Structure formats: structure tokens, C-alpha cells
């Protein structure tokens, strides 16, 4: 057969594209990143920018219409009115309490999962931790409202073991008590801890799994007691996981408005105020100003955590 009579098959389109992209790494990476970056910049950063812009407007008290003139009057109203300050303090206090409680509960669970559990037991723990996250959020909240009710299963259980007086004493505490657990800040605290605890356990377990066992053995060989090893070796190396989990629990508590609306004593939280002001009241600037508060608090927390070296082990 003559070589001139051979017909060269055309190169497939995908092969031509692959040949074109080969050696053009910058162009290839740009093609991959531009679509998600456009979405991120438009939807996420765009919405945050719009939120920030609206917080610098104010609402006319007579016409109830937004005055599109830049001003700090809304922020001044936010930080000077006692009712608004009380809402911020109440929300931040609850977020701090929930974060600390989640860390205290999650640390021994995560440490057991990372250090002592067998592969099968570790899998069971992971499923047990994540299983509540698969259920409906509203179903869990209303289920807890029934559990914490005055005639609920928790009250029945405490009565069965003779701890009704302890429950009554807790409900009589000023500022956090109420007629029942479902109508008190104690009950709200319990529901918040239940909801956000998995978000603390999982990052902590991942961080503790990366702690080399040789460091613990070396600490013991050098004469350190278990408490010293925990404070000087385990905790510093687990700080990235603790910081990540605390960001979740702190920020989620700051912005939640469903749990305070369903469970707990009367009193507004930041999330409830954002929902009411942009919906019922129609005061979008004040809602935007309230929304900026959790963003600023989380940014301050991340800055302090970074200065403390919480992310050095990442």
C-alpha cells in the first residue's frame, strides 16, 4: 500500500482541547476557577456587600420608608438604645455559654474516638454523632419543646429519681429560670448544645487524630503526669479543631432565630430581630445593622484565635 494513499483520521475534539490546554497551566486553572469565583463573588460577597450598604441607610420615622442617604444613625440606634444592647448582650452570652459547654462535652468524646476506640467503635461513634444532623431541624426543635415541657418526659424522669426539687431550684434561678424548662433560658441552652454539639465533636476528633502518639509517649517518658501532658501537649495541638468547632457553635448560636422563637423565655435574640425587622417591621437598615454584629464578632474571634496560635498547626 502506498503511503500517500493512507488517510489520517481527524483528531477527536476532546483530544484537541486536551492538546491545546497541555502546557497552558495558567489558562487551564483560570477556566476551572472563574465559574465558582463568579458565583462566590456574586452570590456570597455581593449579598454581604449589599447587607453592609443597607446598614448605612436609615428609615424615616414618619413615612416608614428607607432614606437612601449614607448615615451612621442606624448603628448609633443599635448601640445606644438599651433594648438593642440587651439583645446583643443576651445573644452573645448565650453563644459563649453554648460554645464553652460544647467544648467541655465534646473533648472527652473526641479524645476517645481518636485515641481509644477500635475501628468499629469509631465508626459507630461517627454515625451516632452525625445521625441527629440528618433529621429535620424543625422536628428536633419541636421534639425538644415537648421533652422539656412541664409535663414532659424529662420532668417525669427527674420526678421518678427524686430530683424534682433540683429542677425546681434551677427554674427559680433569676434571669435563666422560668415556669418550665421549655419556657426558660436553661431549656434554650440545652437545645442549642444538642443542636451544635456535632459541629464541635467532628473538628476536635479530626484534630486529635493528627496528634502523634510518639509525642504522648515522649511526654510520659520525660516524667509528665497525665494532666501535664493534656495541658501542654494535647490541648495546644487540638487548638485548630477547637477553634473550628467554636466558630461553628458560636456563629450558629448568634444567628439562629428558630430555637429562641420556639423554646425559651420571652426575649429577643439577634436572629429574631433580623427576621422581624426585615419582615414584619420592614426596617431593612436596622435588620442589616443587626446582621453586621455577628459578622464583626466572628471576625474579632478569628483574629484573636490566630494571634493565640490556634491555626499554626493547620
Mean pLDDT: 85
Over the alpha carbons, how many angstroms does the gyration radius reach? 27 Å
CATH class: Mainly Alpha
What is the tally of helical segments?
A: 14
Main sheet: strands, sense, barrel: 2 strands, antiparallel
Task: Name the CATH homologous superfamily.
Answer: MetI-like
Strand order of the main beta sheet, please? 1-2
Summarize the structure.
With 314 residues, the chain is mainly α.
List keywords for this structure.
71% helix, 2 strands, mainly alpha, single chain, two-stranded antiparallel ribbon, MetI-like fold, 314 residues, 14 helices, globular
Secondary-structure blueprint of this entry?
Layout: H1 13-21, H2 25-55, E1 58-59, E2 66-67, H3 73-80, H4 82-115, H5 119-130, H6 137-147, H7 153-160, H8 164-171, H9 185-209, H10 213-221, H11 226-255, H12 258-262, H13 270-278, H14 284-307
Antiparallel strand pairs: 1-2
Helix pairs in contact: 2-14, 3-14, 4-9, 4-11, 9-11, 10-11, 11-14, 13-14
What does this protein look like?
By secondary structure, the chain is mainly α. It has one domain: MetI-like fold, CATH 1.10.3720. It contains 14 helices and two strands; from the N terminus they run ααββαααααααααααα. The chain has a two-stranded antiparallel ribbon. Helix 3 (73-80) crosses helix 14 (284-307) and helix 11 (226-255) runs antiparallel to helix 14. It is globular, with a radius of gyration of 27 Å. The model has no long low-confidence stretch (mean pLDDT 85).
Amino acid at each position: 500500500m502506498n503511503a500517500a494513499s493512507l488517510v489520517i483520521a481527524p483528531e477527536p475534539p476532546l483530544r484537541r482541547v486536551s492538546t491545546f490546554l497541555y502546557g497552558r497551566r495558567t489558562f487551564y486553572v483560570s477556566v476551572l476557577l472563574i465559574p465558582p469565583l463568579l458565583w462566590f463573588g456574586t452570590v456570597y460577597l455581593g449579598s454581604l456587600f449589599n447587607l453592609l450598604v443597607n446598614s448605612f441607610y436609615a428609615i424615616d420615622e414618619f413615612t416608614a420608608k428607607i432614606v437612601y442617604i449614607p448615615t451612621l444613625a442606624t448603628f448609633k440606634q443599635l448601640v445606644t438604645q438599651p433594648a438593642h444592647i440587651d439583645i446583643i448582650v443576651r445573644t452573645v452570652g448565650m453563644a459563649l455559654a453554648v460554645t464553652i459547654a460544647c467544648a467541655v462535652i465534646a473533648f472527652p468524646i473526641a479524645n476517645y474516638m481518636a485515641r481509644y476506640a477500635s475501628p468499629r467503635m469509631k465508626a459507630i461513634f461517627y454515625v451516632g454523632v452525625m445521625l441527629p444532623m440528618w433529621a429535620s431541624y424543625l422536628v428536633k426543635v419541636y421534639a425538644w419543646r415537648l421533652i422539656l415541657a412541664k409535663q414532659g418526659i424529662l420532668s417525669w424522669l427527674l420526678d421518678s429519681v427524686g430530683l424534682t426539687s433540683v429542677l425546681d431550684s434551677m427554674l427559680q434561678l433569676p434571669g435563666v429560670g422560668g415556669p418550665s424548662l421549655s419556657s426558660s433560658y436553661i431549656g434554650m441552652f440545652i437545645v442549642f448544645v444538642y443542636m451544635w454539639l456535632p459541629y464541635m465533636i467532628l473538628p476536635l476528633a479530626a484534630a486529635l487524630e493528627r496528634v502523634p502518639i510518639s509525642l504522648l509517649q515522649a511526654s510520659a517518658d520525660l516524667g509528665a503526669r497525665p494532666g501535664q501532658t493534656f495541658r501542654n501537649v494535647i490541648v495546644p495541638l487540638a487548638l485548630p479543631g477547637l477553634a473550628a468547632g467554636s466558630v461553628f457553635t458560636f456563629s450558629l448560636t448568634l444567628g439562629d432565630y428558630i430555637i429562641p422563637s420556639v423554646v425559651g423565655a420571652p426575649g429577643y435574640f439577634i436572629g429574631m430581630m433580623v427576621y422581624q425587622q426585615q419582615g414584619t417591621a420592614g426596617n431593612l437598615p436596622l435588620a442589616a445593622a443587626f446582621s453586621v454584629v455577628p459578622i464583626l464578632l466572628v471576625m474579632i474571634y478569628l483574629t484573636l484565635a490566630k494571634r493565640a496560635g490556634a491555626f499554626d498547626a493547620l
